[in-house]
Amino acid sequence: MAAGARRREGLRFPARRSPPPAPLALPLSRVKLIMKSCPDVSSINQDALVLTAKATELFVQHLATYAYKSNSSEKKELSYNDLADCVENCETFQFLAGLYISITIKYVREKNFCGKHG
Length: 118
Prior knowledge:
Elements: H1 28-36, H2 46-69, H3 80-89, H4 99-111
Helix pairs in contact: 1-2, 2-3
């Protein structure tokens, strides 16, 4: 055996520990509720739930970043219209056309952000 080479037989290597997962911005209970709204879903694995939440966060971050960078004004904020323009003008986000408006309006009405009652 060459100098410095070690025999692997009989040696025990400590198990690799993965770093703790980064905290999620989306509440898992809400993600689970949305996933269960599909009639085809009967149960949800915890790993699938966490991965779906993380993938959703990354997607929303990508959409917001793309919309912000393609914004022609020099303001330092992102508006609903910026997101709508991004969906309309970018082929990557075309699948959201028509869907994002109804979800947003329903959410705004439910949360009473418009100041209207009923």
